[in-house]
């Protein structure tokens, strides 16, 4: 099967580069599957996993929003932040999830920014799901 080059980049620099058979990502408009030769497109990404498939091998990258740019021979993910599964600290992500849940359950009188807490919860849950898929 033909491969396509994938680059995942954040403001801090490159996170991942490889040649894969398929890229699966969650865009604002829905889940996208990209193969070599895909038509050019740009799509905003949701908080979620970028799934890289190469035969029976899979690799997951936790992405916290950004933009996906597709060209026939290359996919570039410009993410606000991104982490490879092996770089995620499971305990830290679990604590972040618990803090976000506590904020969401707090009384309105505590002046909690609920949208910010919801996003923090989504990011933590994404990171946890990536680590769990690794094993």
Question: How do you describe this structure in short?
Answer:
This protein is of the alpha+beta class and 135 residues long. Helices cover 27% and strands 48% of the residues. It has helices spanning 90-105, 114-134, and strands at residues 4-10, 13-20, 22-27, 30-35, 41-54, 57-71, 74-79, 82-84.
List the helices and strands and how they pair.
Layout: E1 4-10, E2 13-20, E3 22-27, E4 30-35, E5 41-54, E6 57-71, E7 74-79, E8 82-84, H1 90-105, H2 114-134
Parallel strand pairs: 1-7
Antiparallel strand pairs: 1-2, 3-4, 3-5, 5-6, 6-7, 6-8
Helix pairs in contact: 1-2
- Write down how many β-strands occur, each being a DSSP E stretch of 2 or more residues: 8
Q: Which H/E pattern describes the elements?
A: EEEEEEEEHH
Q: Mean of the pLDDT scores?
A: 90
Residues in helices, as a percent range = 25-40%
How far is it from the N-terminal to the C-terminal residue, by CA? 26 Å
Number of helices: 2
Assess the beta-strand content as a share of residues: over 45%
Shape: elongated
The major β-sheet equals: 8 strands, mixed
Structural class: alpha+beta
Regions with pLDDT < 50 over 5+ consecutive residues?
A: none
Radius of gyration: 16 Å
């Amino acid at each position: 099967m033909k491969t396509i080059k994938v680059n995942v980049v954040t403001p801090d620099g490159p996170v991942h580069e490889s040649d894969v058979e398929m890229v699966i990502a969650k865009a604002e408009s829905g889940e996208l599957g990209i193969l070599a030769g895909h038509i050019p497109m740009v799509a905003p990404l949701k908080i979620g996993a970028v799934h890289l498939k190469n035969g029976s091998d899979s690799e997951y990258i936790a992405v916290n929003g950004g933009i996906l740019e597709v060209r026939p021979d290359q996919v570039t993910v410009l993410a606000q932040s991104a982490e490879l599964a092996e770089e995620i600290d499971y305990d830290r992500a679990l604590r972040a999830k618990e803090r976000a849940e506590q904020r969401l359950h707090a009384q309105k009188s505590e002046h909690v920014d609920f949208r910010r807490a919801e996003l923090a919860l989504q990011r933590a849950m994404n990171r946890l799901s990536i680590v769990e898929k690794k094993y």
